[in-house]
Amino acid sequence: xxxxxxxxxxxxxxxxxxxxxxxxxxxxxxxxxxxxxxxxxxxxxxxxxx
Length: 50
Hints:
By secondary structure, the chain is α+β, with helices and mostly antiparallel strands. The protein has one domain (12-49). Helix content is 18%, strand content 24%. A two-stranded antiparallel ribbon has the order 1-2. A hairpin with a 2-residue loop joins strand 1 and strand 2. It is elongated. The mean pLDDT is 80.
């Protein structure tokens, strides 16, 4: 939770009300795929999510 698209449809004016719905499990949950790539470049470990 909290990565790609998490709660992006909530506007600031409704944040508290929507958060209450979220905490009560009164929200729609969408399963999504996430691609995560870990790699090394210039002797640095990097990670990319898409």
